Amino acid sequence: MQSIEERVSKFTRLLEMEQVMATSTDMDELLGRITACSQEITEADEASILLHDHERNELFFRKHAGDMGQLVETIRVPLDRPSIAGHVLLSRESEIINDVPSDPRHYKGVDKATSNPTVSLLAVPIVWGDRCFGVVEAINKPGGFNEQDREILEVLASHAAVALQNLTVMDQLQNYFQHSVEILMSALECLEPESEGHVIRLTRMATAIARKLGLEGEDFQNVWYGGYFHDIGKLLMRSAFVPRSDRMHPVVGANVIAKIKILTKIAPLVRYHHERWDGSGFPDRLKGNQIPLGARILALVEDYEEQWMDRIKAIPLAEFQEEFFANAGGKHDPALLPIFKKVLASFQA
Ligand SMILES: [Fe+2]
Ligand SMILES: [Fe+2]
Fold first, then answer.
1. DSSP conformation class of 45
2. 192-348 has which fold?
3. Nearest ligand, measured from the Cα of 249
4. What is the distance between the alpha carbons of residues 78 and 59, in angstroms, rounded to a whole number?
5. Where do the CATH 3.30.450.40 domains begin and end in the chain?
6. What does pTM read for this prediction?
């Protein structure tokens, strides 16, 4: 029987873990911490998280805390053969077994692979709605597991399920976003075959400049997304069959991007990616620092790309670069020019 102090200490640990789970964006790190917390709050020798591989109809050890370490993480538990973890996954009911060797469902493959006999086991399903992600197991506890261990591990598993669901949705959104961008860019390249690879090249160069400037977090991400979407206005104008000047594409693109909540902050980068440091650009003829830094980066690389696409058949790259930088003074942020030179040199190295 646990003392009041022990119970309070364990639930305090659980609360701390909840805060980690609520803010975590890294699946691997999250699972590692949940596993370590499971071992700690149940006072088990080992703890594992097994996830359900639907395609192979197996459970696999995704994370383990304890002496068996990485050895366990190579083991898979087939669901078409008896196993306690498999039973917990399918029944969605937790189990305490304090005499594992005599349980007919015990899957001996794990003990064989680790040479470490499982004596006692507490297994809890990780369930969110109608989905069961897998099972969290606490393994071997001197004196065996009890109902208080079950209660606290069930609370942890229920919070883990919510965190896993959130990360899964985030992962799906990221995947959807990435592929949607690729489809849009492919459509643009179909309309303008001469611009093949332009968006990827520009984004690569612009983000390299941003890195050298020390931009991080959201500022860096905005340059990255800005690179991907800078010419989206061209695609929208073409697909709407609206006969408008090509000079309108930053405005058309920015107006659409501004309506997408997660991209609102890159709208100015899209709108101003053809502005010039000396005020000779378009659409708003902004000057100097009136142009946001991210847009100044995109404008520099966009100008380089457009000029190179015009001259690619006329002169060698080295000669073009010399010419570009000789004529860039005044048009672009002077602080960015030497950085861009270094980026280009590193790409050719
Ligand atoms: Fe462009
Ligand atoms: Fe453009």
1. S
2. Hypothetical protein af1432 (1.10.3210)
3. 2
4. 6
5. 4-169
6. 0.65
Residue type, 167: L
Ligand 1 center from residue 172 Cα (angstroms): 28
Which ligand does the CA of 306 lie closest to? 1
From ligand 2's centre to the CA of 306, what distance in Å? 9
- Ligand 1 mean position, distance from CA 198 (Å): 7
Task: Measure the CA–CA gap between 125 and 208, rounded to whole angstroms.
Answer: 45
Nearest-ligand number for the alpha carbon of 192 = 1
pLDDT in tens, 47-86: 999 999 999 999 998 888 887 766 677 788 889 889 999 9
How far apart, in whole angstroms, are the C-alpha atoms of residue 163 and residue 253? 35
pLDDT at 243: 61
Q: Distance from the CA of 85 to the center of ligand 2, in angstroms?
A: 56
| Tokens 């030497």, located at residue | 338
| Residues around the ion ligand 1 (C-beta < 5 A) | 231, 302
Q: Is the pLDDT of residue 4 over 90?
A: no
Q: Is the pLDDT of residue 344 over 90?
A: yes
For residue 214, the CA-to-ligand 2 centroid distance in Å is 25
Distance 65 CA to ligand 1 centre (A): 50
CATH number of 4-169: 3.30.450.40
Nearest ligand to the CA atom of 305: 1
Q: Which ligand is nearest the CA of 237, by number?
A: 2
Amino acid in position 58: E
Q: What is the pLDDT of residue 69?
A: 66
The DSSP line for 97-129 is ES-GGG-TT--THHHHHHT-----EEEEEEEET
Enumerate the CATH 1.10.3210.10 domain ranges in the chain, comma separated.
192-348
Q: Which ligand is nearest to the CA of 198?
A: 1
- Tell me the per-residue pLDDT of 187-198, one tens digit each, with 9 for 90 and over: 888 878 888 889
The alpha carbons of the chain give a radius of gyration, in whole angstroms, of: 28
